[in-house]
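Something for you to look into today, if you have time. Could you write out one complete protein record for me, on any chain you like? Leave the record below and I will have a look.
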Amino acid sequence: MKHTIVVIGASGTIGAHLSMRLEQTGHKVIRVSRSSGDYRADITDRASLELLFKNIGTFDAVANAAGDVIALPLEQITDESINFSIANKMMGQVNLVRTALPYIANRGAFALISGVLTDEPILGGVIGTMINGAVEGFVKSAAHEMPRGIRINCISPTVLTESETYHDFFPGFIPVEASKVVTAYERALLGIVNGRIIKV
C-alpha cells in the first residue's frame, strides 16, 4: 500500500535519506524544511505549521527529522539555551502533532525523533537528555489518546556515521548509518507499532 508522507527536516541527513528511500519504494513524499523543499515551515512557529498543513491538505503520515538543542556544560546553561531547545525539539514536535491531527488520514502515523542521549548522557548533553526524555514521554502517553486509529512512535538514533563532526562528542559510541535510521522510520510509519521508542 502506497502512502503520502510528509517529511519534516527533509534537507537534513536523516530527512534526505528517508525521503529518497520512501520514494524508491513507491510512496509520495512531501519534503518540508525551513529553507527548501516542496513547502517551507518552522516547527518552532505554530502559525507556520498551521499554514503548512492547511496548504498540503490530506496525507497519510508525518515523519519528523527536525529539532535543535543547544549543547553546553551544566554550569554554562542559561534560561535562553533551555527555552530555545524546548521550543525547537520538544514543543516543536508536540505542536507538529497537534497541528497535523485534523489533516492526517484515519489510521495515519507520526514518527518523531529523540536520540541516544535519553539513555546515554554525554558531557555537555544535559539539555539534550532532558528534551529527548520529554519527547519520548509525550509519545508514550499520546499513543493512548490518538483518535481515529492514528499511531505515534519515536525514533531514537545514536550518532550518525555521516555526521563526522559530532563523533568527538560521543567517545566510545558506535556510529550508525543513516540507512539504518531510515529503516526504523519505515517500521514506525508503515508497520503496526504504536507508542514505541525505536532505538537505532
The beta strands are 4-8, 28-33, 39-40, 59-64, 104-113, 151-156, 197-199. The CA atoms of residues 108 and 150 lie 5 Å apart. The chain has a mean pLDDT of 96. Helices lie at 13-24, 46-56, 79-100, 126-142, 178-190.
